[in-house]
Design a protein that fits this description.
two-stranded antiparallel ribbon, 12% strand
C-alpha cells in the first residue's frame, strides 16, 4: 500500500470516491512516465490496459477526467492530487483553471491558509511553507517568479486562473471586454508566469475544474 495515499487520505479526511480517485492517480504515475516529451501514444495504451474507460487523452500529454458527484469535494480532491504529486513525484508547479469567476474566487479562498475549507489542512509539508498562490489578480507583481532562494526554486507554485481573466481586457475607459484575444500586456506577464511554472522542473501539472465532469473521458 502506498504510504503517501494513506497519509493524505487520513489528513484530508477523503471520502471513498476521493480516495479511489487518488489511488487511480497514484497508479497512473507508477505506470506512465512523467518526463517531458514522453511517448504519449504508448502512455495511452498503458493506461487503457488497466482503465479501459479511458478512450483518448485528447491532448499531446497524458490527460484524465475524474468524475465526482456534486458535493463530494472536487476542490479537496485537487488539493489531494497536488499534495500527492509533490510528496511522491516531486512536482512543484501546478496550474489550476476555473471556468468562471465564482469558482475562481472559491478556489483562491480554499487554497489560502487559515480559511475554513483550506485544502491542505493537515499536510505537514505545507504547514511551515504553504504553496505560493499566483492568481489572475496578482501575477503582475511577479509572485512565484521572485520566490527563489540560494538553493534554487524550492517552493510549490499553484497558479489559479479563470478563463475570463485570460480572454478579457480593459477598454480605454476602463470597462472590461471579454471574448477577445489575450492582450499583449497579459501575454508578456503570463510568459513570466509560464516560465516560472516550467523552469527547472521535470514536469508541470495542469488541472481543470467545473461543476460537472467535462473534458476527455477518463478513469
Amino acid at each position: 500500500m502506498n504510504p503517501h495515499i494513506n497519509t493524505i487520505a487520513n489528513r484530508l479526511s477523503l471520502r471513498p470516491p476521493q480516495r479511489d480517485s487518488l489511488e487511480i492517480l497514484a497508479r497512473v504515475c507508477d505506470i506512465v512516465s512523467l518526463e517531458k516529451n514522453a511517448d504519449v501514444v504508448q502512455a495511452l495504451k498503458t493506461v487503457q490496459a488497466e482503465y479501459p474507460t479511458v478512450t483518448d487523452f485528447e491532448r499531446d500529454f497524458p490527460s484524465l477526467c475524474f468524475a465526482l458527484a456534486t458535493g463530494v469535494g472536487k476542490t479537496r480532491l485537487m488539493g489531494a492530487f497536488i499534495a500527492y504529486l509533490f510528496k511522491a513525484e516531486g512536482i512543484r508547479h501546478f496550474f489550476v483553471l476555473a471556468p468562471n469567476l465564482t469558482i475562481y474566487n472559491k478556489l483562491i479562498a480554499d487554497f489560502t491558509p487559515n480559511t475554513p475549507k483550506y485544502v491542505f489542512q493537515g499536510i505537514s509539508e505545507f504547514a511551515v511553507e504553504p504553496p505560493e498562490i499566483i492568481t489572475g489578480d496578482n501575477y503582475e507583481s511577479g509572485r512565484g517568479v521572485r520566490n527563489v532562494d540560494l538553493f534554487g526554486d524550492r517552493a510549490v507554485h499553484v497558479n489559479i486562473f479563470n478563463i475570463s481573466k485570460i480572454t478579457s481586457t480593459e477598454t480605454p475607459k476602463g470597462a472590461v471586454k471579454t471574448n477577445v484575444p489575450v492582450s499583449v500586456g497579459f501575454r508578456s506577464t503570463s510568459d513570466r508566469v509560464t516560465s516560472s511554472t516550467c523552469r527547472s522542473s521535470t514536469t508541470s501539472c495542469f488541472l481543470w475544474t467545473s461543476r460537472t465532469a467535462t473534458g476527455p473521458r477518463g478513469a
